[in-house]
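Q: How do we represent a protein-ligand complex in a form that can be generated token by token?
A: Start from the inputs.
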Amino acid sequence: MDHDVSPAPLRGIKRLSLGALSGLIAGYAAIAVAELVSAAVRPESGPVIAVGGAAIDRTPPAVKDWAIRHFGTNDKLVLQLGILTVLTVLALVLGALATRWRVIGSLGVLAFGVVGALAATGRPDSVGVRDALPSVVGAVVAAGLLYWLIGRLGQAGRSAHAADTPAAEHDDAVATGGSATPAHPAEDSAASGWDRRGFILAATAAAAASTGAGLAGRALNGSQGKNAIASRKDVVIPAPSSRAAPVPRGAALRIDGISPFMTPNGDFYRVDTALVVPKVDATSWKLRIHGKGVARERTLSFDDLLKMPLIERNITLACVSNEVGGPYVGNARWIGVRLADLLKECGVKPPSEGGPADQLVARSVDGMTIGSPVEDVMDGRDAMLAVGMNGQPLPFEHGFPVRMLVPGLYGYVSACKWIQDIELSTFDDYDSYWVKRDWAQKAPIKTQSRIDTPKPFGRPRTGTVMVAGVAWAQHRGVDKVEVRVDDGPWEEARLATEDTRDTWRQWSYPWQATKGGHTLTVRATDRTGRTQTDKRTPTIPDGASGWHSVVVTVD
Ligand SMILES: Nc1nc2c(c(=O)[nH]1)N[C@H]1C(S)=C(S)[C@@H](COP(=O)(O)O)O[C@H]1N2
Ligand SMILES: [Mo]
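Then emit the structure tokens for the protein with MTE bound:
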């Protein structure tokens, strides 16, 4: 028994450092244990994910916009790294505090468990109290661990004798403490002495056990997605009964730097609130259609859906958070069931035919709610429940197994991914997720145009420079694109052949570039005859407006 006779508690900076280290180990244990418990409850309920999700739910639109603008699709990674950084600092501080006030340190850890629990149960997709379990169990284990580890350092404030034995602060004295003569009565040293070996053992064991728990949790969480992955591999989408017409030859221009007419799945922008991409098993997936004016309520399986007539359509999707000139727009070939037909089968009538519901509320498995006008969904456009994207089952990131699409409407009011429920309601009765956060109830896509090439601050050579890009005005169609150099006149660009009015349109303009700095500006006119306004508005509440310009220097 050579490890419990070191004579005095640890003090000073070394005590603080080891306290901070204890805090860090306890924090690590909390996350690892929570990860393991969350695997038993469900993956989205881990504390970092829960706090991150709660942060997303509560982020003011301006901040969310800023985050999307600066971090793009990495905004979630940045958020999680931010949370981990804050947790690390808090763990270090609580550990250091605990060296003076042992109980306070542990109470602090418990308090963060409560924050994690509240965050998890407050998410829109929370299934109730059991979402609190990972945070609570993690915090209790961590609080106990911190209390125990700090105990190994000895109790600084308590022992009067300790203050008289400065030798105890020297490593050598402690290291050889086993054979040294106790400097003060044994009963005291047992209760409050610095237990170096005990601390090292406990800290190492805790870190190792946490790593084991964390890895086990990770593995278990991962395996939950296996069925979903297998179910996606098994999907065979039947041939659509209504094919999309082949893309006209002239629709895709061959110009370096222009966005391809069809956006490959891997390049398609992704915008959602999910920190963990939902992995839904298609074989157990169900969609319920119910609510106001639904004469025949229905619950469909994925197979039921695939047995219905399928349509194939090219549709350009755009995000309301897209800045003028921004990247959150993409064009894909989708396959799905015409939503209007399905709604008619359920006895739904649009408001123009006397139906009582003017809002269709789509709900996803992760608690997102997206409200679309029933009138738009049923007015003859190709609103659909999509199952295929560019010749594949939907990628998980884009809503596997089923998502909604309504040509002409921004994604947040039309394009519910991982959909599982459709409720017919009214705009008076219900505000969807983003509407609760100050975005508009209704948001048709604004006419926009973008210069893809040359790039901002590009340095083209004098002579002919191909200025080119895309323009979109979904469901109205683009009729004209014009380019302006500096303050010169508007010149008409050459439009690529239109695919459909639901897709974007490429354009090009051969510019005779002269030496020096120039500003290129673009604007589009839609088929209603309306030209894009130059008035700049922010993305909130219903989409950015204004003209895209690019500044270049011609060499
Ligand atoms: N379940 C769910 N569906 C969602 C969202 C979301 O956060 N959760 N975001 C919407 C928004 S704002 C947009 S712009 C589109 C983006 O679809 P994409 O990620 O496939 O491009 O999905 C919509 N559907
Ligand atoms: Mo969006």
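Residues 271, 319-321, 410-412 surround molybdenum atom (ligand 2) (CB under 6 Å). Residues 57 and 123 are 8 Å apart (CA to CA).
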